[in-house]
Amino acid sequence: MAENINTAPKLDIVLAGEARPQDKTVALAFGSAGGGKVRLEFDARIVPATITALASLLGQVVSDLDEDERPNFQVLKTTAMGLAMNGHGELALALELEGGGQLTLGLAKGDLAILRDEIDEAMRIAEDSRH
């Protein structure tokens, strides 16, 4: 007998998120293609694996698409940012996200100069009156 797995509707927008420390879970609310709303709750232990699987599989979905065929990805908006450092002296960029989440990106020392150059370029673009 085949295992029965429930299929959620196609989710097309992240509406909200909530950390639930007392339950050791993370809950996300999504809007579905049909206009409905779905809330999914993830045990904290599977969140890193879920993120990794989604990022890996997304790469497979878009890698062979022409630029004009790629989806218009939902933007993560920041409300604050800063540098962080762990006990081993490794740097990270800590981003506070709209809705209260935080995303911390570890930075390789070799990438710091590239990051500086990219930020300088972003500042030039932002200051250009044509944009």
Task: Describe the 3D structure.
This protein is an alpha+beta fold and 131 residues long. The chain has helices spanning 47-62, 112-127; strands at 11-20, 25-32, 37-43, 78-85, 91-97, 102-106. A hairpin with a 5-residue loop joins strand 4 (78-85) and strand 5 (91-97). It is globular and about 55 Å long. 0% of the residues are buried.
Q: Kindly, what is the distance between the CA atoms of the first and last residues, rounded to a whole number of angstroms? A: 60 Å
What can be said about the biggest beta sheet?
3 strands, antiparallel
What letter string, H or E per element, gives the SSE order?
EEEHEEEH
The total of beta strands comes to 6
Tell me what portion of residues adopts beta-strand conformation.
25-35%
Q: Compute the gyration radius: what is it?
A: 19 Å
Briefly characterize the structure.
Helices cover 24% and strands 34% of the residues. With 131 residues, the chain is α+β, with helices and mostly antiparallel strands.
Question: What layout of secondary structure does this protein have?
Answer:
Layout: E1 11-20, E2 25-32, E3 37-43, H1 47-62, E4 78-85, E5 91-97, E6 102-106, H2 112-127
Antiparallel strand pairs: 1-2, 2-3, 4-5, 5-6
Any descriptors?
131 residues, three-stranded antiparallel β-sheet, alpha+beta, 2 helices
